[in-house]
Structure formats: C-alpha cells, structure tokens
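anyone seen this seq b4? input:
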Amino acid sequence: MTKAEYMEQLQKKLDRFGRELKEEIMEDYRQHFAEGQKQGKSDEEIIRELGNIEEMIRELDEADKENAREGNDPGQAESGFHQYAWPYRAVELECDAADIELERSADGQVSIWYEIPGSDTINRRLVFYQREEGDVLYAGIKENKQKTKGILESIRINKEWFRLGNPVLKVKLPEGLERLSFSTSSGDVCAQGISVDTFLGNTASGDVTMKEASAKQIQLKVASGDLELTGIRAVGLKVNSASGHIEIEDAKTETAQVSTASGDIEIEDAKAQTAQISTASGDVDLKGISADDLSVESASGDIAACAEVKKCHCGAVRGDIDLKATGPAEQISVNAVRGDIYLTLEGAGGMKAEVAAHYGTAHISWAGECKKVSAGTYTFGDGSCRVEASTRSGNLEISG
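predicted toks r here
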C-alpha cells in the first residue's frame, strides 16, 4: 500500500467524526510520514509503524465512549495567577487555542490568570508561557511542540479537549500602555474598558467583542468570526472580517475603515470625519451616522443608510441602495449597476447630487418644490439643491 492509498483510506474512515478532530488526526499522520521520509524510510515501513487503521478507529470509539460516560472525571484543571509591577511599554498575547478576556486594571499593574481544563496529559500538551524583552511583556497559552506523543495519545487528548472547552487567559491592564496586541487561532476575545495608545488584534476562527474601549489606533482582523464593538473612542479605527458579521454601536473616531468579504455590516450611532465601509457579498445597514466624508461600497449586497453627511458616495454592483441624507449635505454620489436607488434628501441646500441607476430605477425625493431644468437634471427648493439623475434601462421617479 502506498502513502496516498493509506491516507485516502484514513480520511474515509474519519468522515463520521468531527471536522476538528479529523483534521488533527490527519495532520498527525502527515507529520509521521514526513519524519519517516526524512529518515529514509519507505512508505511500507512508515505504514507498519502507524498500524492498522481499523484498530485505531476502534480505539477512538472506545475513548469517545469513555469520555461520554456519565460521571467521568476529566481530571483537574491547571491554573495560575501572575502579577507584574514593571512599567511595561507594551503587552503582547498569543494563544494557540484559548479564549482571551481583557479588562482594565485598578491597581496600575498587569495581572494574568489562566486556566487549562482537563487532565494532566492535556496540561502537558498546552502550556502557559511568559517572558520579558526589555519593556515588553509576552504571555499566552501555547502548544508544547517539544512534547513527543503517539498518535493514539493525540486522539484521546483531542477528544477530551474538545469536550471540556477552550483554555482561558484573563488579563488586567493599566492605562497608558503604548501597545496591546493579541492573536489566537481558535478562541474568542472579549475586551472591556481598555485604554491604550495602540490596540492590535488578530484571530483565525473566534469572535471579538470590544466594549467601552479607547485608543489612538484600533486595528482588529478576524478570519471567520464576528466583530462586535460598543462604546469605542479612537483616532483611527480599522476592522476587517473575512466571513463574519461586523456590528458597531456608539463609536466616535476621526477615521474609520470597516470591511468584510462575505458578511454583513451594521453600524448605529457612530461619528467620524472620514469613514470607508465595504463588503463584497454582504449587506450594509447604517443608522444615525454622522460623517464629513462617507463612502459605502457593496459588490453583491444591499445598502441602507441614514446619515448626516457633507460628502457621501454609495456604490453597489448587484444590490439596492436606500440612502436618506440628512443635514447640510454638499455632495452626494449614488451608483447602482444592477439595483434600484432610493434617495431621500432632508435639509440639503447648495448641494449637488449625482444618481446613476444603470439597469434599475432611481427614486429621488426632497421635502420641497421640484423643477426639471434639463434632461436628467432637477433642482429643488430655491434651486441651490441640484440633482443629476440617469438610468440606462430603468425609470426615474422624482418627487418634491
């Protein structure tokens, strides 16, 4: 039997188990093959060392039943508490698989509490680490890659680990840090009341929740989780999610960049001088937005916005745009390729608007008298509010 045939058989046998466990076991086997090949072993020799797949599956089933048995004691959790008085410039946290909880410290010190659930075997696999490099503190929960373990041991570890939940890292931080950063591969992050100069965060498959936080710069990036921000105060805000939902409420910032590849964006009661919002295949819903310069883009989702703006641009390729512009707007541009446009103007004076619905209908309304100046050009009120509207194969509906 070749390596390819053996791995194909293994993958089929593991299909009935959970995705995380399946991938963990497959990776262990891949590494075993790689190590054996480095040592000059043939596929047959490596396969003999790995053993019969059916026997491994039976062992896995037994481990599953044992862990599921009522009253099964998984063992004592490992936990610890550390406190640091040194005036650090920055704190950097990194976790392979752990939830991170961040809070403001009341005593001006950095304190870290951690817990790794499960048996001694799991504790030996995951370790808490800490180190100092000058005025930077590094801490987290990492996988002990130096630990040598058999494949069957790895199976039992992972079955028990997934049942017990993620380890937890709780950190309290004083105000005045120059930089706080975190990264985690599969855990959620919750930050409450943090105040630092720069806040940087990155997670692969966990959610990020941030409340009542302030910083000069906030940058958050999530691969497949949701982002929820409430009560944020920042000079610059930049958040991105590849396939998750972004929700922001009560935020004040000078510049804001909010983007997602395949998730929705909801923003309510937010104020910024410049805001750029974009999604590739999700909807955008904005309520109570105030911005000097607002740009909203969606490739294949709808845009709904109620905003007090000076300048505003909304663009959608395959989606409708519903924009209610309030306040002293000066310039508005709305462009929909394959969707309808609904533009409502309130209090706009001395404003120029350009509306283009290429293959849809444009609905434009203003609380005042409307006058058609020329083909596609309309003025409202005293004539200082001017709208240029166009469509290729749709209709124009103008009311005033």
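The first helix runs from residue 3 to 13. Residues 145 and 204 are 20 Å apart (CA to CA). kinda curious what u guys think
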